[in-house]
Amino acid sequence: MNNILNAQEAFNAMIVGKNVLARCIANSQGEHLDSEFAPISDYPADIYAKPHMEFCIQIEMLEMAGIKFTKPCTIDELKKGQEIYVCIFPYAEIHKVKFDHTSAVQNFVRCGVVQRDMENAKLQMQAYHAFLGLDLALTINDVPSTEKKQKGKRPTAKEIEAHKDVILDAIATCVDANEVETVCSGIEKYGFNDDQLQAINAAKCAKSETLAANANYCQLAANTPHPEAPEIIKPNDGGHYFDRVKKETAEWNTQLKELLARLPETKTPEEANALVRYTKSWTEEQRQPLLRAISRRLQEFQNPQPKAEPSLMVKIQTAPDLTTLDALEIDVGSLDPVVQAEMMRIVNTRRLQLESAVNDEGQTA
How many contiguous H segments (helices) and E segments (strands) does the chain have? Predict the structure, then answer.
């Protein structure tokens, strides 16, 4: 252990509740006695007054995926200039740095990714990867480690086909073009053959066309072209007749656009029909564009289209935080085992992205 304390420091640590260990390094003849530290309860009460004693704080051990490592550092135990080892999980890197009071370094400590020595940093990194079922090569100070070779498992044809079916199901439940692009992004790296890629692209195109048609239908009321207000030819009284017609036409256009914009926001047929009362001063021809738009809105009330819920794959890929992702991971456990392996890969990918974002924010802060 590297946290050797003197008697006063050990006593103060014991007062605040730390687990203090001790060993006698020599007797009165200068002979070495204890090679290992032991609890202070094994020694007499006047241990702090005895010479040739060494003290240290017992560091709590954690275990993950069967691998034990020391509990990550806390800010109050670190001193400026002390060497620390930062685990950058998304990149499988361990950085040896000097502790200081900058916000970036302190954020690493608060996130529980800082160890006191290289050995426990490696163990913490290995435990994290083992928990996720990963086997990645570690990089230490940007130098690849030779202790572990990266292993890659090629997916089977059955797994690739299952992944294709997952993507097709996800495309079918997309509710907008952005979700379609999210589902289909990076499909070339999954090992699909030409037939599988063709099936995915065909589904993507069909879904995009359907969404575009629905969007056009919903916006049709606002975008419906309408005829110019009919002009009733009257004698020119004082040379201002055409100016008056131009003004009235502009006012009608403005009011029509406002009513068409309000129409999609109506919640009931009564609200839609009530818009007609604002057209009492209009001619029948001026009123026709609004009446046609109201008719289409009434059809929408009669045949509502339920909004499809995003697929589980899309929910995972767009999970805003780790808590949401943990909840979605539970849902993955109920899937067919063939699909479950691929969905867990997507969960792990999103988890690394979210953790990377947290670390990046910590470095920027």
Answer: 13, 11
Q: Give 141-150 contacts, CB < 8 A, sequence gap 24+.
A: 141/94, 141/95, 141/96, 142/93, 147/122
CA 272 to CA 259: how far, in whole Å? Answer: 10
**Rounded to 5°, angle at Cα 359 from 355 and 361:** 115
The HSE-up count of residue 4 (CA atoms within 13 Å, CB side) is: 8
Token representation of residue 347? 């969960």
Q: Quick check: 173 and 310 in contact, CB under 8 A?
A: yes
Query: Which token pair is 147?
Result: 């202790």
Sequence length of the chain is 365
Compute the distance between CA of residue 244 and CA of residue 238 in angstroms, rounded to an integer: 11
**Residue bearing tokens 């009530």:** 274
Q: What is the pLDDT of residue 10?
A: 84
- Cβ of 338: how many Cβ atoms within 10 Å? 15
List the structure tokens of 176.
Answer: 């907008």
Low-confidence ranges of the chain (pLDDT < 70): 1-2, 27-34, 142-154, 213-243, 304-309, 362-365
CA-CA distance, 62 to 72, in Å (whole number)? 9
> In a 10 Å sphere around its CB, with 0-12 CB exposed, 13-18 middle and 19+ buried, how is residue 128 labelled?
buried
